[in-house]
């Protein structure tokens, strides 16, 4: 016997306020990343170095092992959106708990975020942050406009990881790290 398909149901209008939705989302613990890309024509002293731009993001997620795909999202009102949208590559740097200062620096939108940042350049010529727990050099494979954000899907060309350290975790508007359960 073939299973019956459920009847078509139209989406319902949300039955909550935006503040309530934001509070519910804040209960989900997530890792913290800094995503870097090229900033052609940037002026030193702006929110970028003379060559790069970077942002803090907690919207990072894996998509597929074959091919190796990851995703993250950026708001339509972000000043760096045109650079990430037009760029061919970016690096997702997964932050360790001792990199809270980097998280805050790259989320502030103030000054040259790379001036006091220790990094090396990956094969695509983009910053890989020293001390990151993991990093993913990605080709900017596709972008999807959804709601008030753009979802970026990156095809991972190279990746690396550190031998230890605890992740920086964001949950309920606070930073923390993981504790193993007994």
Textual characterization of the structure:
- With 182 residues, the protein is mainly beta.
- It has one domain: Roll (Pnp Oxidase, Chain A).
- The chain has three helices and twelve strands.
- The strands form three sheets. It has a seven-stranded antiparallel beta sheet with strand order 3-2-6-9-10-5-4. A three-stranded antiparallel beta sheet has the order 1-11-12, with no helix packed on it. A two-stranded antiparallel sheet has the order 7-8.
- The longest helix has 9 residues, at 100-108.
- The protein is globular, with a radius of gyration of 18 Å.
Summarize the structure.
With 182 residues, the chain is mainly beta.
**Topology, number of strands:** 12
How many structural domains in the coordinates? 1
The helix content is 10-25%
Question: What is the residue-averaged pLDDT?
Answer: 89
**CATH class category name:** Mainly Beta
Order of helices and strands: HEEEEEHEHEEEEEE
Name given to the CATH homologous superfamily: Electron Transport, Fmn-binding Protein, Chain A
Strand content: 35-45%
User: Over all CA atoms, what is the radius of gyration?
Assistant: 18 Å
Strand order of the biggest β-sheet: 3-2-6-9-10-5-4
Q: Distance N terminus to C terminus?
A: 47 Å
Largest sheet: 7 strands, antiparallel
The CATH level-2 architecture is identified as Roll
Q: So what's the overall shape? A: globular
pLDDT < 50 stretches:
43-48
Q: What name is given to the CATH topology?
A: Pnp Oxidase, Chain A
Number of helices: 3
The structure class reads mainly beta
């Amino acid at each position: 016997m073939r299973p019956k398909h459920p009847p078509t149901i139209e989406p319902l209008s949300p039955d909550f306020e935006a503040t309530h939705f934001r509070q519910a989302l804040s209960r989900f613990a997530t890792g913290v990343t800094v995503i870097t890309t090229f900033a052609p024509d940037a002026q030193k002293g702006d929110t970028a170095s003379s060559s790069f731009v970077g942002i803090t993001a907690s919207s990072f997620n894996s998509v597929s092992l074959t091919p190796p795909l990851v995703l993250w999202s950026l708001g339509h009102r972000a000043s760096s959106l045109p650079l990430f949208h037009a760029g061919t590559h970016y690096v997702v740097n997964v932050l360790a708990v001792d990199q809270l200062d980097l998280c805050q620096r790259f989320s502030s939108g103030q000054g040259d975020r790379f001036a006091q940042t220790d990094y090396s350049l990956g094969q695509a010529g983009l910053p890989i942050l020293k001390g990151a727990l993991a990093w993913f050099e990605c080709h900017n494979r596709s972008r999807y406009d959804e709601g008030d954000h753009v979802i970026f899907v990156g095809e991972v060309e190279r990746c690396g990881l550190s031998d230890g350290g605890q992740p920086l975790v964001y949950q309920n508007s606070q930073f923390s790290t993981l504790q193993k359960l007994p």
